[in-house]
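debug: dumping io for the single-chain case to check the tokenizer round-trip. Nothing else runs in this session.
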Amino acid sequence: MSDLDTLVDMGFDRERAEIAIAQGKSVEGAVQWLETNQDRDLAELKEQYEAEGASIDAKSVEGVAQSLVCDDCGKKFRDESQAQYHASKSGHANFSQSVDEIAPLTEEERAAKLAELRARANERKAAQSVQDKAEQKRNEEIRRKNTKETQDAKEDLKRKEQMKEAEKKRREKQEDVEAKQRIKAKIAADKEERRLRTEREKAEREGRAAPPPPAAAPAPTASGPTTSKPASAYTETRIRFQLPTGMITKTFPVETTLFEVAAELSKESGIEVQNFTQTFPKKVFDHEFFGESLKELKMVPSASLIVK
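debug: decoded output
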């Protein structure tokens, strides 16, 4: 395996490794150079290598300075990258050139050094893996939170749209009922007027007095019999609900739609209402009836419902 393949196998970028090897560095020197320059832009490293590569080669051939020595601890280094790496790790800042040539590593030393470098590379990979997993977890948590918030917003918007649609249908139905009542009343009034006119004309032909207009219905007296209040006179209705968690009783305006009742129960109890079952007379009110009011469903002045 070549030195370049060794560096790539350790996890280094191939292009950066090629620059390190092209400068005549050993695997150890290349690793130190790569770690020292890991935060620098690749384009910047290429430009520096192309501009300074020739002078670096010339200096190594001249042999004026065979190594660098740390004036703080006395340790020697083959090239500038090793000295920079030592400075970054130890904090030493005083270096000078030396004419002493550092002997090349033996096969055993080279193998040991490669093993050490591989171990360091593996540690770096493991640390990066842990960091990547933590970052991935944070991103997933952010995504889930955003998804939940978006879903909640969509559900809230859908619920409001359903309530608007139910209110619109209820209003249209009420307006239709009122229009029909007005038409019926107009027809009845026209019919009564025609009857009275016919009777007057007949009385005039026969020479007798016209019949008196019909008397208004007598108002109820305090001494007269009392009658129960009609359902149409109620403005509120009292409903008892049988939930899985127990019984509750609530009061609603008679114009409240069954959809609004289901929405309030869901908000208070957390139960997703599918339908209501009336015990007597037996009847099931599913989503088809949710747009109708309690008054239209004849749940006035009271009712008992099983929630499912």
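debug: round-trip ok. Strands lie at 67-70, 76-77, 95-98, 236-243, 246-253, 276-278, 283-285, 302-307.
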